[in-house]
Automatic annotation (TrEMBL):
Similarity section: Belongs to the SLC13A/DASS transporter (TC 2.A.47) family. NADC subfamily.
Organism: Larinioides sclopetarius
Protein known as: Solute carrier family 13 member 3
Topology of the protein relative to the lipid bilayer: Multi-pass membrane protein
One Gene Ontology cellular component annotation held by this UniProt entry: plasma membrane
Amino acid sequence: MDFSYVRRLMLGFMLTTMFLSMWISNTATTAMMVPIVEAVMLELKSSAERTTSDSGSLLNLDALHKTLLLSIAYSANCGGTGTVTGTSPNMILKGFLEEHYPESSELTFATWMAYNIPGMFICVCIGWLVLQVIYVPCWHKQDEESKRKIRSVISARYDELGSITFHEAAVFFFFVVLVFLWIFREPKFMSGWADLFSSDTRKGDAVPVMAILFLLFLCPAEPWRIRESPALLKWSAVQSKLPWGLVLLMGGGFAVAQGTQKSGLTTWLGAQMTQLSFLSPPVLQFLLCAITAGLTEIISNSTVATILLPVVNQMAITFHIHPLYLMLPVASSYAFMLPVAPTP
């Protein structure tokens, strides 16, 4: 039987979702991709109902439907590990380091990508292979009509977008500039733009963000009628679209982390962990990955990162290990192989 077309289709969905999730939240990426999967499956099911009376074929399509939806969810979680801004645990770790190790410059946007992007691709490929094992035995041979239907649905969705507007092009340009500024602030393999300024003041990742936001509020969306044109970004849009709950969640997480440190809880927990001192650092790192992945099956990623990072930091101090060696696995180990795993 010929499964190559469906395999390529699923891989295309997963790679697209992974890339988008590197830059926007996992939830928003999934919300963008699911309607496309639904439209494709609707066409496949309607085509199957017209051409066959075999109920088994429809059951096969139901299995494929679930598999494609799971592929979107899994690849969104994997893509979120690729950049510092991909998902909230990454930013929680970055904020924790900036608060407790302000002199450290090891974890930057560029070094995070160098560390996590290879693992991100590996996880997506593993998810793709595992999902094939799940649905291939249930899949029937795909005819040319089904392939044509899938192509027509995706082409129709693409055509509905229309030509790119100046507003969209300008926002995309500023987004590319922002990513460029993030990566080349302190890239480590060369001098970054932050080195051009005085070393007395630390230039964090928030500096280019604020600069780009200022330009978005300033630049007109329709420059050909500059006097009447609205800006590229309006405060009303920020007020209604910004996930304020996530901002409060992250701020509350930092407060909890500070509270556990001030109260001495992290020191006490770290001291209890001395019983694990007989373990080698790689084994300890693997154990932390397994614990984090297990906890995120039932607790949100952000909550787990907020709770574990102060404890793991104290463990690293107690065991005389570099804190990033233990904290990076905690921030990057998400549960993605269960449908019920929460995403930030």
